[in-house]
User: Which sequence fits this backbone?
């Protein structure tokens, strides 16, 4: 039973909970007496919050509740990446900024998986309603740099069969996103400055070649999270303590190995208001760089990091464009992608990214 993927709460039993908690070292003696389940959902998963009661005399590190994430959807949006995130990629990283995983399984045909992890809801919150501060941004930068340093460089990446992306992989990524460009431009033609249209066309004409060119120098590449949105960052309620990063769920067309600083750009450029980003981005990037150095990253200087930040900041335009590939997303998610487009264009001009495209 422990090898089965849980796709329905009917599969959750006392025997299963006892077995996985014993295997993970949580239970030492005796067992779970009872449990109850509360179900919630997200775009790509169902979440079961499992509250546990233990028999008298039970010993061990006993969690009061657990979260079971169940993904069994469209084969284009689920793969083994998230299971690997919790159970393989950082399992040997001390003080990793990732919730403890007690059990996880992935199956390929059809694609589906589950992850049983610690429930942090009593101490931490997602950050959809949080106004970013320097302390918050630096905390996330430290967490990301700690993860990035763990797989920094081609030699480390090879240990898990990863590598710097090839031209084919980059072209596949761009081709998927570019399908949304013309529909997006048509949708916003009367709401944006006319110069933006030519800028966006130029980005898709020249930026992919710059991405491919950048891969000729392997310094700066690592496993990335790829979706550092405010909901995937868990901060402590009291403002002090550990930040956690959750939900690494790349699409089949995503770049899973890329420039580490792209995660910082993703966090700030198309989520934060421009004035706040302008105020905080340099000190946050400095903290990210300092944390890389503290984690033994070398042969990567500040000037290269800033150039990489600008290169990957342009990809926030891709994020907005990707929402426009499908007509339904273009219509229903306009409230997300249009502000992202505006913030990303502002960053493009702030950072003088047109110079990067033409150099």
Assistant:
């Amino acid at each position: 039973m422990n090898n089965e993927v849980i796709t329905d709460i009917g599969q959750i039993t006392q025997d299963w909970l006892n077995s996985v908690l014993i295997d993970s070292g949580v239970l030492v003696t005796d067992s779970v007496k009872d449990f109850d389940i509360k179900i919630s959902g997200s775009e790509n998963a169902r979440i079961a919050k499992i509250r546990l009661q233990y028999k008298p005399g039970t010993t061990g590190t006993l969690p009061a509740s657990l979260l079971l994430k169940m993904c069994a959807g469209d084969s284009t949006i689920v793969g083994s990446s998230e299971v690997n995130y919790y159970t393989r990629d950082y399992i040997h990283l001390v003080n990793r900024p990732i919730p403890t995983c007690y059990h996880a399984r992935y199956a390929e045909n059809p694609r589906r998986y589950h992850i049983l992890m610690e429930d942090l809801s009593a101490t931490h919150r997602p950050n959809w309603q949080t106004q970013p501060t320097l302390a918050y941004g630096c905390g996330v930068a430290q967490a990301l740099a700690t993860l990035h340093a763990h797989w920094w460089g081609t030699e480390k990446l090879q240990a898990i069969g990863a590598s710097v992306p090839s031209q084919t992989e980059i072209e596949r990524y761009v081709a998927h996103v570019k399908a949304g460009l013309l529909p997006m431009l048509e949708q916003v033609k009367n709401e944006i400055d006319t110069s933006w249209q030519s800028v966006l066309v130029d980005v898709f004409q020249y930026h992919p070649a710059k991405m491919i060119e950048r891969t000729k120098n392997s310094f700066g590449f690592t496993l990335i999270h790829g979706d550092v949105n405010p909901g995937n960052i868990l901060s402590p309620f009291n403002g002090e303590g550990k930040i956690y990063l959750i939900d690494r769920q790349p699409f089949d067309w995503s770049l899973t190995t890329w420039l580490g600083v792209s995660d910082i750009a993703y966090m700030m450029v198309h989520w934060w208001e421009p004035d706040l980003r302008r105020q905080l981005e340099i000190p946050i990037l400095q903290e990210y760089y300092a944390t890389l150095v503290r984690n033994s990253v070398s042969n990567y200087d500040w000037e290269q990091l800033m150039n990489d930040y600008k290169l990957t900041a342009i990809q926030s335009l891709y994020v907005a464009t990707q929402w426009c590939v499908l007509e339904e997303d273009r219509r229903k998610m306009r409230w997300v992608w249009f502000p992202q487009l505006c913030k990303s264009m502002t960053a493009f001009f702030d950072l003088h990214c047109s110079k990067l495209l033409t150099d």
Q: What stands out?
A: The two ends are 58 Å apart (CA to CA). Residues 99 and 120 are 8 Å apart (CA to CA). The longest strand covers residues 32-41. The chain is about 45% helix and 15% strand.
